[in-house]
Design a protein that fits this description.
This protein is mainly β. The protein has one domain (about 15-205). It has 3 helices and 16 strands. It has helices at about 1-10, 40-55, 130-135, and strands spanning about 20-25, 30, 35-40, 70-75, 80-85, 90, 100, 105, 115-125, 145, 155, 155-165, 170-175, 180-185, 190-195, 200-205. Strands 3-5-4-9-12-13-14-15-16 form a 9-stranded mixed sheet. A 3-stranded mixed sheet has the order 1-2-8, with no helix packed on it. It is globular and about 40 Å long.
Length: about 210
């Protein structure tokens, strides 16, 4: 009875099964995988990941919400793109900015050939990339690399998701090599801006904005 009363007062809840993250001895984070996939394209991956990540507890709570992070990756053997489980390790930065610590390692025994293509994260209170997101310091290096097994060239990219007030989900991609900012529009990536400089200032292309 006492436990029931306390849960009623403080909203006791079970751990989020989609959050599977651990801190390694070297201090970096490692997430399990996969949570979702395989997907044939990054567009399909982003559309699904946006719905999934912004539906997590607190992910769409505006100023009172917080970010979730994950990794997106590719398996040649599976011929598909995947999303890892999530990390909720983060908090509030300067000026009330939300942040989550990006995992740097993946634990996916079912796909030993996994190639990490970058991070994915949700924003609870803005649909725009932050200057930290697009800064040179945050680029995942090397930003462009070759898969030695297949010879395929990959560009690393940061995915970002935002749940609009009307309930729709907005997906964005920041290419760490070209520094292009793209938005998922009608199932296709559309270039909407260009980041530049060490702090990643984004200039929108003519006729483009964060929303169509």
């Amino acid at each position: 009875m006492l436990l029931g009363l306390l849960c009623g007062l403080w909203s006791c809840s079970a751990p989020n099964p989609n959050v599977r993250v651990e801190r390694m001895p070297n201090g970096l984070l490692r997430v399990k995988g996969p949570l979702a996939g395989p997907f044939k394209t990054t567009e399909e991956l982003a559309a699904h990941a946006c719905e999934l990540m912004t539906a997590q507890p607190g992910a769409a709570n505006g100023a009172y919400g917080f970010e979730y992070c994950a990794l997106h990756y590719y398996s040649h053997a599976a011929q598909g793109f995947f999303l890892s489980y999530l990390s909720d390790i983060g908090g509030n930065g300067a000026g009330g900015r939300k942040y989550c610590e990006v995992p740097r390692a993946l634990d996916d025994e079912s796909h030993p050939d996994a190639i990490i293509l970058g991070a994915a994260h949700s924003h609870p209170n803005t649909r725009k990339f932050s200057s930290e997101d697009t800064s040179e310091l945050r680029h995942w290096r090397p930003t462009r690399f070759m898969d030695k097994d297949t010879g395929r060239i990959w560009d690393r990219a940061l995915l970002m998701f935002f749940r609009e007030p009307a309930g729709t989900c907005s997906s964005y991609l920041y290419d760490n090599t070209s520094r292009r900012v793209l938005a998922l529009r009608r199932g296709q990536w559309t270039a909407i801006g260009q980041a530049s400089g060490p702090y990643g200032e984004v200039e929108m292309f003519q006729g483009q904005d964060w929303l169509p």
